[in-house]
Amino acid sequence: MTASDPAPPPGPQPAASAALYGPAGFEEFFRHYEPMVRRYLIWQEAEPGILDDAAQLTMVSAFRYWDRVGQMDPPTGWLFKVARQRLQDARESHRRNGILIGADAIHDTTAHPDPITTCDQRLDILAAISKLPRRQQEAVALREQFGLPYKEIAEIMGASPATVRAHVHQARKTLEAMLGDDKEGGDA
């Protein structure tokens, strides 16, 4: 049994989908947002097989509600909320079906290189983030990696904006303490 999709907010009726995404419509939307959904799922530590299932199911949900999702500007918060639910569904499905996934599966988190931060610094940051409590990891990733506003992050995480701010603040404080040596060198 899968969780239902979050209802898209009321909006313009069909026919206007091309307004935001041009004549290509969903295909253009898919090319733009599907990689972002995958990066979000990587931050959620989705195992490779489960990541594929969750990403695909998220985009199927977007297509299913295309008349309204196509009007969202931006639809990122809704997509991440659906991706989070689909990830839980996919994990449960794999568990029910006896598909074992190694807890230490390696993910390609460097698929989208950061031109400013060196590879070693990026690896140090990722290692430090992995030591944070789960909710702090998610909040700081959504804020720093995806640039989402606190209100959207709160909707995705099912928390209040104040709680999200607290998670991000605490994560930043902890990361600063863990990576303090890098800052002293002037490279942070």
Please, could you describe this protein's structure?
The protein has ten helices and no strands. Helices cover 63% and strands 0% of the residues. The C terminus is likely disordered. With 188 residues, it is mostly helical. InterPro entries: RNA_pol_sigma-70-like (IPR039425), RNA_pol_sigma-70_dom (IPR014284), RNA_pol_sigma70_r2 (IPR007627), RNA_pol_sigma70_r4_t2 (IPR013249), RNA_pol_sigma_r2 (IPR013325), RNA_pol_sigma_r3/r4-like (IPR013324), WH-like_DNA-bd_sf (IPR036388). This is RNA polymerase sigma factor. It holds the Pfam family Sigma70_r2. Keywords: Sigma factor, Transcription, Transcription regulation.
**Overall pLDDT metric:** 75
- What is the count of β-strands? 0
Gross morphology: globular
Order of secondary-structure elements: HHHHHHHHHH
Q: Regions with pLDDT < 50 over 5+ consecutive residues? A: 11-18, 100-112, 182-188
Computed Rg? 18 Å
Helix run count: 10
SS-based class: mainly alpha
